[in-house]
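Memo to structure team: turn this sequence into structure tokens by end of day. - J.P.
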Amino acid sequence: MNAALSSQGSLCPKALGDKIEHLWLVQRMAKVAGVDLAAAMESGTLSSEDWSKLVTNCRGCAWAGSCREWLDQQFTIVESTPDECINGETMTGLRRPD
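Reply from structure team:
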């Protein structure tokens, strides 16, 4: 379960975002990061469980609103994903070789 600190400092569940919306955010981030998700799945580098975790992580990410804005400003493949991206390290690991 995703949890976030409340304003009182205690852990409380964080509502997850919309599945379809975050599915598209993950796909957009992958494209901008130079990641071919379909090829990663076909090669076995990315399992269906891993794919599900990417979307679930995104659904619980506090940066999702800013992510949309950042993605809207990207027109080419970037060298690295933003530090705020909860899936950034995974995307870097899945990047296609040049």
